[in-house]
Design goal:
Blueprint lengths: L3 E6 L4 H11 L4 E6 L10 H7 L8 E4 L7 H8 L3 E3 L7 H7 L12 E6 L7 H14 L3 E5 L9 H10 L3 E5 L3 H10 L3 E5 L13 E4 L7 H14 L4 E2 L10 H14 L4 E5 L1 H4 L6 H15 L3 E5 L8 H17 L24 H10 L6 E5 L2 E6 L2 E5 L2 H4 L9 H20 L53
Parallel strand pairs: 1-2, 1-3, 3-4, 5-6, 5-12, 6-7, 7-8, 8-9, 9-10, 10-11, 11-12
Antiparallel strand pairs: 13-14, 14-15
Protein name: DUF6513 domain-containing protein
InterPro entries: Dihydropteroate_synth-like_sf, DUF6513, Pterin-binding_dom
Pfam families: DUF6513
Length: 477
């Protein structure tokens, strides 16, 4: 027998919900029930328990995604599962298509070496603080960067301190003395050894990262690989990723060739030469580079966060490696897995068309302003009418809040959010911060407990004399 689902909604969303379900041509039976609330987002678990007297023979109940409260308690009360649906009604078809097969992003294969570039210039305590930050963002190995002709007198102390705190540690230097000192202090990896310095691997237990001399010479790389293989020692190979216009394309080919010639060796890619040296948002670069790593089974990257525009590179790489592994293992494109790397744009920024927004406005019976966006602009409406423009300043004369500073401030904040979202192609929901993916508040933030009621939002209650009071917390259509 087909499953029967009870959808709970508000008065304003009922018609749209029915149309959305019908368009899905569902393989389940359903009942749409208006709970006696105008705005679905204002529904709470307590309200449902008080007002819902009939479950209409349903096998489970689906409540709006922004419904707060203890749904497990509701499930026990009604004797059937009570679940949250998507936050946006237009995401309902995707919700039913993917909710039972969400990719597992808890796993990854690629290791992130996070370099503290200025390590010689900061003390051990500062190195430990930076290492903790990098570990929180997803780093697996803390790399201490050495600078040419720059003393690093506390190198051994830094390595020992990091090891005592449970970190894996690498040292990044071409100076033999630094490499030996770090290896003897307990460093796990040495970046980097070549044909001339390969002898260091015999002096310490650290795993070496091998590079070619001269740069790009694959024959040199082949020789050091052969020597380390003969020793029976673990090692990693770094063919070196070059910046754009300084050998970038050739270096990508070089990675491919190393993998072809050596199908089983461990490989590292230093992605900082792209993320640091290209003035473009790094989330996309990290996704592309870690896609290459996934195809070539590159097991390590060296990431840096030196330039201000690359300040989230480690966090981006951490999410990218999880997405790429999930995509590869399920033999699918890296689409519809996680939107955390889409900071500027979104897959479906405008869930409602202008005609649908007009329908909503026609159903409004109160003076509270609603704000929505579409491809055509920003829409502000209440029972008195609907006004549309891409410029918030053009909308202000219609709001009637010249003598209500608090209300004007609230609407100004919301219209600014709406303008940014409409210009970039992002989702906008009144009284909600914009979603900047992993760079800000995310829809999948594990720290947000949907069983707890949301704190009071940014909406300001209107003064008694206000001609158009604002919605209460999180009110939206």
């Amino acid at each position: 027998m087909a499953e029967h689902i009870l959808f709970l909604t508000g008065k304003l969303a009922e018609k749209q919900l029915r149309r959305t379900i019908e368009d899905m041509a569902p393989d389940f039976g359903y009942t749409v029930h208006v709970l006696g609330v105008t705005v679905a987002a204002l529904m709470t678990a307590d309200m449902i328990q008080r007002r819902l007297t009939d479950t209409f023979g349903a096998d489970r109940i689906l409540v709006p995604g922004r419904c707060r409260g203890d749904l497990e308690a509701l499930s026990r009360h009604f004797g059937i599962p009570v679940e949250r649906g998507p936050e946006e009604l237009h995401d309902l078809p995707e919700f039913f298509g993917k909710v039972r097969q969400r990719p597992d992003l808890s796993r990854y294969e690629l290791r992130i070496f996070a370099e503290i570039v200025e390590a010689p210039h900061i003390d051990v305590a500062a190195i430990l603080r930076r290492a903790e930050e990098y570990r929180r963002d997803g780093a697996d190995v803390i790399d201490l960067g050495c600078l040419p002709s720059t003393p690093f007198p506390h190198l051994a102390d830094a390595v020992k301190a990091l090891k005592s705190e449970g970190f894996l540690v690498s040292i990044d230097s071409l100076d033999s003395d630094n490499l030996l000192l770090a290896g003897r202090a307990g460093a796990d990896y040495l970046l980097s050894l070549n044909e001339e310095t390969l002898w260091i691997a015999d002096e310490v237990a650290s795993t070496p990262v091998l590079i070619a001399t001269p740069h790009g010479d694959l024959h040199s790389l082949d020789r050091v690989i052969a020597k380390m293989t003969a020793k029976g020692r673990p090692f990693i190979v770094d063919p070196i990723l070059d910046p754009i216009h300084f050998g970038f394309t050739d270096s990508i080919i070089r990675y491919h060739e190393v993998r072809r010639l050596h199908p089983d060796v461990e490989i590292m890619m230093g992605v900082g030469n792209l993320t640091e040296l290209t003035h473009a948002d790094t989330a996309g670069m990290n996704a592309m580079l870690l896609g290459i790593c996934s195809e070539l089974h590159v097991g390590q990257i060296l990431a840096t966060q030196v330039s201000k525009h690359a300040c989230k590179a480690i966090k981006e790489a951490d999410l990218a490696r999880r997405i790429m592994l999930a995509a590869r293992e399920s033999n699918r494109l890296p689409k519809h897995i996680n939107d955390g790397l889409m900071a500027l744009h979104e897959r479906a920024p405008f869930p409602l068309s202008v005609s649908e927004i007009l329908e909503l406005q026609a159903a409004i019976r109160d003076p509270s302003f609603r704000i929505m966006i579409s491809a055509e602009g920003i829409h502000v409406f209440n029972r008195a009418g609907l006004w549309t423009d891409s410029d918030p300043f053009a909308l202000f004369p219609h709001l009637g809040v010249e003598n209500d500073g608090g209300h004007a401030f609230y609407l100004g904040v919301e219209l600014a959010r709406a303008q940014i979202a409409q210009a970039l192609g992002k989702r906008y929901a009144q009284d909600q911060p914009l979603d900047w993916g992993i760079h800000g508040r995310t829809t999948e933030d594990p720290s947000v407990d949907p069983n707890c009621y949301a704190p009071q939002g940014t909406t300001l209650e209107a003064s008694p004399s206000s001609p158009c009071p604002t919605p209460s917390n999180n009110q939206k259509t």
